[in-house]
Amino acid sequence: MAKQFPSISPEHRGFIERQHVFFTASATGDSRINLSPKGLDGFRVTGDNEVCYLDHTGSGNEAAAHLKADGRLTIMFCAFDGPPMILRLYGRGRVARKGTGDYARYLESFFENREPAGARQIVVMDVELVQTSCGFGVPLYGYKEERPSLIRWAEAKGAEGIADYWQEKNRVSIDGLPTGVE
Asked: What residue spans define the domains of the chain?
């Protein structure tokens, strides 16, 4: 039932753009595997073989550490409404850190220069393989709305509080790998 493709087709792009949540998975050869749900309208298809997502400040920064050390990244989308499907993107990722030219270019080109409170970095992925599968086992759910909690938390902390939080919680992974946060 699985089908593989060398790039993101217009049909894949449409499917991705309709999803409200996606999942990222990363690891190194000897680290824990990190699997994270993401949302907040932060995902963009930037080309036939490139995607990015605006990464918000979180309790950890595992993907950044894994990408710095290894680079492998998988992103998965599931249809929770409409026809069933699972779409996975396999490839290599890198981090465009806040305050860099790469970050500014992606923010302007793909996020209309809108930077939500707590934005930490933009993760860019070079897509090597697209795989779709049936998704028959994924339950049906109805989307209600985005949770405002993370943005409100970041707004309450302010820029200085977020910077302090990064130093305390986001400099190394749970396995002690550096994330690149200075």
From this structure: 3-135+146-169
